[in-house]
UniProtKB/TrEMBL annotation:
The keyword Glycosyltransferase does not apply. One of its GO terms (cellular component) is cytoplasm. This is Ribosomal silencing factor RsfS. It comes from the Bacteria. It is found in: Cytoplasm. Pfam families: RsfS (PF02410). It comes from Marilutibacter aestuarii.
Length: 139
């Protein structure tokens, strides 16, 4: 008993679109299907895999899958084939890999549990006034 392997053709247009143009297309796709609480995280210098991560919530598994499908559709319109799409079956967390931009579409409870925004932005924010005062007093 053998299963046929799915062949995914990946390609980037020559020349590939700029990261800004790709982000614009992702934003448009998310807005089109009313994704919730979209956050763009610049991970240049933190990750060698991608430049930006976009995290967005859907209201149901169907909504999550639809947003991911729309991102793929809009990217293809730009001439970009995704390098991979993971999690479509369960559709609680669908990842769309567009090379320079990775899109995470998640149910709110899954997003809260994994806290990707917090994970990738640790150390980015300057200390608050309270922390700055404590640091001065310690000296």
């Amino acid at each position: 008993m053998s299963n046929q392997a799915h062949v995914i053709k990946t390609r980037l247009p020559d020349p590939p679109p700029s990261v800004d143009k790709l982000l614009d297309v992702v934003r448009s796709a998310i807005e089109e299907l009313k994704g919730k609480d979209a956050v763009e995280i610049d991970v240049r210098g933190k990750s060698s895999v991608t430049d930006y991560m976009v995290v967005v919530s859907g209201t149901s598994t169907r909504h999550v899958k639809s947003i991911a499908d729309e991102v793929v559709k809009f990217a293809k319109g730009l001439g970009v084939m995704p390098l991979g799409v993971e999690g479509e079956r369960e559709a609680e967390w669908v990842l769309v890999d567009l090379a320079d931009v990775i899109v995470h579409v998640m149910l709110p409870r899954v997003r809260e549990f994994y806290a990707l925004e917090r994970l990738w932005t640790v150390g980015d924010q300057p200390p608050g006034d309270d922390e700055a005062e404590e640091a001065e007093q310690a000296q």
